[in-house]
Structure formats: C-alpha cells, structure tokens
Target: Replication factor C subunit 3
Amino acid sequence: MSLWVDKYRPTLLCKVDYHREQAAQLRNLVQCGDFPHLLVYGPSGAGKKTRIMCLLRELYGSGVEKLRIEHQNITAPSKKKIEISTIASNYHLEVNPSDAGNSDRVVIQELLKTVAQSQQLETNTQRDFKVVLLTEVDKLTKDAQHALRRTMEKYMATCRLILCCNSTSKVIAPIRSRCLAVRVPAPSIGDICTILSNVCKKEGLTLPQELARRIAEKSGRNLRKALLMCEACRVQQLPFTPDQDISEADWEVYLRETANAIVSQQTPQRLFEVRGRLYELLTHCIPADIIIKLLTKNPYVGLQIQPCTPGMYRLWIMTIVIQQEKVKLDKAALSYGKFRT
Model:
C-alpha cells in the first residue's frame, strides 16, 4: 500500500491541481520542439519534482515511469573511488551530485559525459536527446557549478539538463543565464485544503474544513507534508473531528524540547547536553540550516531573545554563517556554543 503523497501524485501536466497556467506553458514548451535547459526552483513541497516528471512524461511517454536504481562507480583524477546512486529510465537520469561531497565536480563531468555519448534505445520517441535531472543544485560547490556550466555547453546537442533547487541565490550567474528559469511557488492554504478534501473523498473519507485548514497552516504550505500529516491523522483517529490533534514529526518535537533546554538554563553542563542533542538531529539527516532556522523561530526562544537585541543578532549572524559555509557535521554542532557565548 503506497502513501497518499505517491498514490495521488499527478502524472500529466493537464491533471495538476494548482498553478495550471504554468502547467499549460510547460506543455507548450514541449510541443514547440525547442527544449532548453531548465532551472526549476521553489520551496520544499511546492510540486517541483511532480511537474518535472509530468514534463518528462509529455516528452517521452509512459516509459519514463519505468525506473531503475543504478549504482555508478566513478574514479577521480586522484584515483579515489566515488560511488553514487542514480535513478534512471531509458530516457532520463536523475542524480543528486551533492551526495558526493567535495567530489561533486567529478561526478557531474563523468555522468553527463556518459549520458551525452549514449544513444536512445527507442528512436520512435522522436527525441534525439536525453534528459539529466540534477537535484539540490544549490548545494553544489562552486567548482562543480563551473564544471556544470562548461559541460552543459559542450553536450547541448545530445543532452538537456533540468536543474532543481530551492533557491537560485546559491547558483552562479553563468548557469542561471543558460537556463530557462521556472519558479514553482508554494500552494496557497486554499489550494492545500481543496487537495486534502479531494484525496480524502477518493479514500471514502469526510475531512472537516476546519481540520483541513489547521493541517494546511501547520504544514507551512508544504503540500507533501500536509498530505503526510493528513494520512497520519487518519491512522490516529477515524472518523475525523474538527478539533482532533495533528501529529508532529518526532524530530520537530525533539527540536522543540531542545529549544526549551536552551532557554531554561545556561550552564556549561546544559551546553554539553544541547550539543549532544544537535548531534543527534544531524546524524538523523536533519540539515543544520533547518535546525538553526527553526530554533530561531521557536516561540520559546523568541520569548527569551527579543528581536533587535544582541542575542538575537548573534543568532541570526550564526545562521547566515552556517548557510554560507555549508558547515560539516562537527562545525554545525559547535555553532550553538558560538552564538551562546
């Protein structure tokens, strides 16, 4: 049994539930034949990946849904072995180069070279190029981004790139200028409520509008998160009630407890405890910038550190430093100690 977020994901641009004008423009882009490199950006849970997969379906047909996981072994010039996982069909390749860390430049060059030099298995698709989908492009190193810029020029004839990221602020200008930018805004509260109601109706459930709005607001306009929260509510209690509790992710509860620990006591012992809690979050793949961002927005911290005070100023400066430096796990955990002192 699949999750609602996968079960009811649209597969065609004509079936998307919101931003339909944008979907129509993407269909026209496919039909015109001159398909450029794309830079698709927007907040998490806005529907970027869904629209990209619908676009590939318009390009190549249902064959893009026959996916396989491949493990690529790449040898760097330093003789270092790099292993990276990709998701591929006969027509496209999806990869997150930032998974390779500082070796992302080598991964980009080798993968694009391999894809560009391969031929289509089915010529009846009437497309003489393959598509490479690169996710989290904003997390690539500057060297990797410059290598990407050179490579996308070299293999333009046989390869098209779709770059996906949350923000273009960390993508270098030469890449942005070579791509058609497509911004996917977050869905509105009303859009999310409508989608939740439609999904529940297909499941034979009745979702109260009050509960749908509470889920939409608590999700932060993240549609994927809203669908997961709604499905968790179904598991927790049926039938739905307007005032029933909405389940939170365990890491969010853990982070809120960490915020309580920060403001309740400022001692070396508490600093050591909070550092351990931050390590726990980081080892469970919660990004450091998300941790610091949610800590600064936490109401418990806000009551103790008011805006425009030196404490809040240091907190936000440390958040900026973390985002700019792409800190490693150990540096991210030590950042708490820096802005507390």
Notes: The chain has three domains: 4-183, 189-236, 250-333.
